[in-house]
Design goal:
4 helices, mainly alpha, globular
Length: 97
Amino acid sequence: MSLVTSFVAELIWAANQAPNLTPLGKRRLLKRAIVIIREMRDQAGIPSSNSPADALTAPRETETAVDSLDGERIGAALLEAAYMIRTLRIVRDGKND
């Protein structure tokens, strides 16, 4: 299993356990996801728009407000990050073929 696949699985597991995770654990997962998404977009040749419509805006906002959000919102953010990473892997791997 690749590191990306392992991290996607970790995000999905964490999303299901979000109410039980510590704020630090939630923040670390979201930060890792943001870094991975940014790197994978670069590898796939997808530029960042640096606008409020950028796909990374929501994960960044969630990460900074993690202390004030409920488990359901954090879980949704983790699932969205997993979906983005999975989609970017497909795009990136398709460009390499």
